[in-house]
Amino acid sequence: MSEGRRRWARIFTASSTLLLLLAIFAFLQMTGDLEDSYDPEENNIARLEPGEQKAIELKTSALVTALRESIDDSNDAELRLYDEEGSEVSGKSPNWRHPTRFSGDGEREYVPVRVFEEVNGEYTLHNDGESTLWLVDDEEAANMMLSNGWTYAFFFGCCLGAPVGFIGLVLAVMVWTDKRKKPDQFLVIDDGRVIISEPEDIVEINGQEASVPGPFVDVQIENPKVELTEEVDESWKGWDDG
Length: 242
Prior knowledge:
Elements: H1 2-37, E1 46-48, E2 53-69, E3 79-82, E4 101-102, E5 109-127, E6 133-137, H2 138-146, H3 149-180, E7 186-190, E8 193-197, E9 202-206, H4 235-241
Antiparallel strand pairs: 1-6, 2-5, 2-6, 3-5, 4-5, 7-8, 8-9
Helix pairs in contact: 1-2, 1-3
């Protein structure tokens, strides 16, 4: 049982290592495309300077995000989006699902200020702020990443390598625990030899006689010889002489 666990622990551990190495290699290959896909300067629907307005056409998109460069602590949206009928689309405030983004060189930081879900058609966007405003299509950016084969390799190696490694770790712990277990043993001394007696078998671990004999070992005890003499019954002589 222990040998089988040890073999499977090695197999699972080696497989997990290879899968995680694949995930790391795939991530390094897709890093460039990932940065370009989520860099507002490289991939955007519209870019508006302060006080500018622009007519835009949005295809059906699950999520469109408005971002501003993070220059100060102010994250006010300061924008207006109108549909074809002139109705304002308020959108929603961003939350933890809409992370901050960085430029390709990592020097600029873009903060989401407003998100619009399920938008489709022609709109007019107004930038009422004092900084540049970007509007990006997150669904399109995600589709660009999914078109990269390294993305699937990354998810395959990461999602499969972690649980496989966990199984290998559990098996390794079980093997280590089995090694620490000791069966019930009994110490037996037989004719100067030390023997370990187990429930199933008796294993001799020292076949040589003890170097220091115990008391009275190898001491020959001589039994005194008692000479028995037969008493001669001479009473017959008297009987014969009588």
